[in-house]
Amino acid sequence: MRRLQRKVDNRGGKAEDAEKQDWKFGRNEGPMTWPWKLMCAILYMLPWVDVTEKTVYFVERFPAFVWTEYFSEPFEHWYNIHEYAPLFIFFATYLGIVRNKKIPHVARYHVMMGVMLDIVAMILIVTEENLPTGILWTPWSDLFYALMFWFIFLLVIYCLFFCFLGWYCEIPLISEGVYLQIEQAEQLGA
User: Fold this and answer.
1) InterPro entries under this entry (predicted)?
2) What angle do helix axes 34-43 and 105-129 make, rounded to 10 degrees?
3) By the 8 A CB rule, do 181 and 95 touch?
4) What DSSP string runs through 70-133?
């Protein structure tokens, strides 16, 4: 029934125009090219670099996961080349990519999603650094490292999967923030 109704509405073009005005649809839909997919995949490594620095204890305790560190090693040098490198990377991606309307919306979405996941990883790291010493050297800290490892690892894999398909990935609360940031960047006159 809905398919039939959409076909009828498409003759007038009203349903298609209404769908394009939806805030999740994007302004300039087009296929995301492979260079943009690779750029987004590189930016998804930022939260992974942050987390692998803190989950060393988890990897030492479970050596079967040592292979996960190999993904972040090429990017650790560039991310830690200077103390202000993460800040520079953030502003370069936000001002140069997210605000640029010439870039496909889905690519800007994935770039901003990488930045938001990095913010989530930073919140977890700050939480870990501010744990009381009575908790920091107990089995509870091992549980926290394991949860941090798996949480960011699975989120990055999930986002990379949708990135290489060229689709939007939906993560509750985080995706809404990404959509709002892109919409706000467009309204600022990008």
Assistant:
1) Tic20 (IPR005691)
2) 10
3) no
4) GGTHHHHHHHTSSTTHHHHHHHHHIIIIIT-TTS-HHHHHHHHHHHHHHHHHHHHHHHHHTS-H
**Each residue's pLDDT tens digit, 18-72:** 544 454 554 446 678 899 999 999 999 989 888 888 888 788 888 888 888 887 8
The count of structural domains within the chain is 1
Whole-prediction pTM value?
0.79
* H/E element, 63: none
Identify residue 75 by its one-letter amino acid code: F
Residue 152 token pair: 């960011």
Radius of gyration, CA atoms only, the chain:
20
Structural domain span for residue 165: 38-188
- Predicted confidence at residue 62, as pLDDT, reads 83
The tokens of 84 are what? 């202000």
Residue 132's alpha-carbon distances to 85, 124, 127, 145, in angstroms, are: 29, 15, 10, 15
| Assigned domain for 25 exists | no
Residue 178 · residue 136 · CB < 8 Å: no
**Cβ contact 150:76 at 8 Å:** no
